[in-house]
Design brief:
Layout: E1 4-10, H1 17-26, E2 31-38, H2 43-56, E3 63-65, H3 103-111, E4 120-124, H4 129-137, E5 145-150, H5 161-164, H6 167-174, E6 179-183, H7 185-188, H8 195-203, H9 207-219, H10 226-232, E7 239-248, E8 258-260, E9 266-273, H11 275-286
Parallel strand pairs: 1-2, 1-4, 2-3, 4-5, 5-6, 6-9
Antiparallel strand pairs: 7-8, 7-9
Helix pairs in contact: 1-10, 3-4, 4-6, 8-9
């Protein structure tokens, strides 16, 4: 089977699952990673962390920083957390990002080489700021792409982190008419690594596994495979999907919620997962 061409759009640097998702993309022959783009808060610093992982995997893949600030939210309005940017501690503080091309322009340029029969898969695993702006800037690429994102929470009236950090961007993406697959937290939260599985990273004895282990320890929480599961769905049937009309609420108590609403555009939404199969496949791929 021909590998799936993807661009990974990530807020790597907070929860460790972004780094683990990147490792899956790099270690899966079914995936042709065309580029990595970063988003949210310090996008350039996030690009440096992605670059370090690429170096450890001995891969030369383009990396481009995108938007650090959401579309409308002020810095003071952004959700907070004790571990935001914690994984940057694994980087040399003297490293500086050298900008060559903005993430949005890179994605648009790359998408021009694809078509409806052979679309480029964009995998956003962070807030959707970059994706909303590229669709607004170049709506003509919509037939050339499909979006497989980690985000949302359709089964309960809760605002999932990636959507909550830029609800306006998420609303634009879900209303864009693009082909969207949503792997929401109501499914991803079922995939959690045991302590024994975490220790296998250190026991692997390789520089890249050790670096991922160090990032896990900086995270200092249970490792839930939110973003890695999204990447696994590209080539494995561990997740079940149903078509649902999904819309992002922008007002009231449900602001940031992804809700089923009559008349909303259809979305391919994750509804269940074979968690054991997904976790075992993850461990097999990320440590090989």
């Amino acid at each position: 089977m021909k590998p799936i061409s993807i661009i990974l759009d990530t807020d790597i640097g907070d929860d460790v699952d972004d780094a683990l998702a990147l490792a899956i993309a790099l270690n899966s022959p079914e995936i042709d990673l065309r580029g990595v783009t970063t988003v949210f808060r310090d996008a350039p610093r996030r690009a440096l962390l992605a670059e370090q992982i690429l170096w450890l995997f001995n891969r030369n893949v383009p990396i481009h920083a995108g938007c650090s600030k959401p579309l409308l939210l002020s810095w003071d309005d952004l959700p907070g957390g004790a571990n935001l940017g914690r994984q940057f501690e694994a980087l040399d503080a003297s490293l500086q990002y050298e900008e060559t091309q903005h993430a949005i322009d890179f994605i648009i340029e790359t998408a021009q080489n694809f078509d409806a029969e052979n679309p480029l898969t964009i995998c956003p695993i962070g807030p959707l700021t970059n994706i909303a702006l590229l669709l607004a800037k170049a709506p003509e690429i919509i037939p050339k792409i499909r979006i497989v994102l980690m985000g949302g929470w359709w089964s309960e009236p809760n605002a999932e982190w990636n959507v909550r950090c830029d609800p306006e961007a998420a609303a634009m993406v879900f209303k864009s008419g693009a082909h969207i697959t949503m792997v929401g937290i109501d499914v991803t939260k079922k995939c959690v690594l045991s302590e024994a599985q975490v220790e296998q990273f250190q026991e692997a004895g390789t520089p890249r596994a050790q670096f991922l282990y160090d990032l896990i320890k900086l995270w200092n929480h249970k490792v839930t495979l939110h973003d890695p599961l999204t990447l696994l769905t590209l080539f494995d049937d561990c997740v079940q999907f149903e078509t649902k009309p999904i819309e992002v609420e922008l007002c009231g108590e449900k602001r940031g919620c992804t809700v089923e609403k009559e008349g909303a555009l259809p979305c391919r939404a994750a509804v269940d997962v074979d968690a054991d199969r997904a976790v075992n496949l993850f461990m097999e791929r990320v440590l090989k």
